[in-house]
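> Could you send the Probable succinyl-CoA:3-ketoacid-coenzyme A transferase subunit B prediction when you get a chance?

Sure thing. Input:
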Amino acid sequence: MLTRERMAQRVAQELQDGYYVNLGIGIPTLVANYVPPGMDVMLQSENGLLGMGEFPTEQQLDADMINAGKQTVTARVGASIFDSAQSFAMIRGGHVDLTVLGAFEVDVEGNIASWMIPGKMVKGMGGAMDLVAGAENIIVVMTHASKGGGSKLLPRCTLPLTGAGCIRKVLTDLAYLEIEDGAFVLRERAPGVSVEEIVAKTAGRLIVPPTVAEMRF
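Output:
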């Protein structure tokens, strides 16, 4: 299975020169460490930072420079800091080229549940609802199954939705999949992971092409 770092490294392969990219809380924040050398990408955080850099070393640490998850970050040359109202105007206006989000569940209709588990205290949805509504190119990054072994790729989400019909790409610790015509389509498998294991851990309808490539790093 892929580690959190490997998952972030695979997502970074989807970046393109000149992209404006929003990184959600959790695994997505690690993508900042794997931007390909020489590629000009502006990473955006909804709390008001455009031009987020890699996580800081001890010498670079600035407690006032944080991302939306309250992690300390760095700012690259050319970065801009502004209020969250302007940040959300950028998101809602469709000016983000790629959004990377975590999730609890995704289903075959492209629905995503990422903000609430009934019975557990949550602080709120944050910017996720705006991100799924304002972005056309979204990659969800999450584990394929829960800690209890239950699939998180479902026929229908069971948790409260963050957005409906908005997800087309999912990267898990086992596979990279696309959502098409009411099904997950297996495009790549993680190194050392069999197609059979992916099938067994996917509850939603899954289409397996004749050939499934192994991810390259």
